Structure formats: structure tokens, C-alpha cells
Amino acid sequence: MKNKTCVSCGGHISSLAKEAVVRKWARKLSNQARYPVVYRLIAGISLCAECLEVLPVIGDLICQRCGREQGKDMSFDNLCHDCKIVQEETLVSNRSLLHYNDWGKNLLGLYKYRGDERLAVFYGGLLAVTFFRYHDPSSFVCITTVPLHNKRLYERGFNQVDLLVAELSRAIGVPVRTLLQRTKETAKLSKQGGRTARQDSMREAFAWVGDKELSTLHNSCHQPYKILLVDDIFTTGSTLRSCASVLRAHLGALCEIYSLTIYR
């Protein structure tokens, strides 16, 4: 383990002390075939035993569209209320690993706004665990990301999601391709007034930048193929759905878009 300091509490990480917790999460978040790889990923996460124990992992009862955790009284179609009222769904599904609580907000803020790039490896590992919990790597053509507007990119100095997907790509063996650009500067989602305002702000916010190899695949393929769209948070889904809409417009109905985020 390269990083012996917990990214959450700053305490020392003892591999021996966290062994039982690693095994517990690996059993919960994987099947028998994927247990070894998920075990290694969780063991490599830079959290001490105590912080790993209380990781706010989303449970098994989820909305099958957006991945939000549901109660035992989940509807017969396994969709949450918000997903039922979406008129034009462009995502097959979203899957996330963690609840976006105060702990997550503080830690993600440290990464996005203070540039603590050691958290890229941490979050990349969490994304890989999320992926193996729900997906098979062999079924995806490529990974792509939600792009930042050039002004926001200049302010931050880096796109936090690009660093995460580099780690994810290494872990799952699926290549990363840049397929989108952000053409419209929008306010932070936290400063927008609600679901409708967020949907309006995301309209025509992204554009296709092209990928010759993927276009060739699209023209020659006669069966559905999958693209993994990655971001850090799924809030209302407006951003991810807007990106998926552009991808489907250029790649056709055979292209299935699945999103993956750390937080939900």
C-alpha cells in the first residue's frame, strides 16, 4: 500500500487491522467470481479500518434506473418517483457507490476545489469497485466523461473526472475516449433553483467532438453496444442525461449509455 495515511481522518492505515473490514465489503459488493479483484481494490483504498467500516455505501434495494437507494416498499417496477416522470430517458441506468452526505461533500470538495490530487487514486478505486459491483468489463466499448467548460477548467487547473477515469480504465481494461465538449457555461448545480432549472441549464450544453474509430463501429455494428459515461455525482441526472442525449444523437439507437458516479 503506497499511501499509509487515511485520506479521511489522517490516521495511520494498518493492512492487518483493516483485513476483516475489507473482506466484509468485498463479500457484500461482489459475487464469487469477482471477489478477488474487488478484494484487491478495496484493500488498496486509502482508508483506515475505522473509516472503511463506516463508508456510506448504497444498499442493494435501488431504483433500477438512477441507482437511488429505496425502501422495502419500492414500487413494483423498481423505479423511483423521479425516474417515472422523466419524459425522454437517454440513460439505460446509473450506478453509484456512496450516499452523498456531509462527509462526501467535504472530501470531494478537497479534491475538486483544493486540488488534492492524491484523492484521484482513492476515487478511481471507488469507481472501479462500483463498476465491478454492477457491470462486466467485456461488454463496454469505451469510457467517456462529462467535460468541463474551458473557463471552469482554467479555474481548477484540471478536470477531476479525467483523472478518475484514468484509474478506472487501468482497473477494468476499458479504454477512455473524449467524445464530448462543453459549449455552454452553466452555474454550479448547487446554485440552481431546482430540477426544472437544472434541466433547462443543461439544454444544448454539450456537443459531439467526434471519434473516427467509434463512428466506424457505429456504421458497421448491427447489435447494441455500450458506452460508460462517468461523472462524480448523480444529483438530478440532468447533466448525465444531456450528455447521453448528444451521444445517442450521433451514435444512433444501438448505442446504449450507462452512467457511473461515485456519489448518489
TrEMBL record:
InterPro entries membership: ComF/GntX_DNA_util-trans, PRTase-like, PRTase_dom
GO molecular function: glycosyltransferase activity
Top-level taxon in the UniProt lineage: Bacteria
Alphabetically ordered keywords of this record: Glycosyltransferase, Transferase
Stated family: Belongs to the ComF/GntX family.
Listed PANTHER family: DNA UTILIZATION PROTEIN YHGH
Identification of the protein by name: Amidophosphoribosyltransferase
Source organism of the structure: Brevibacillus reuszeri
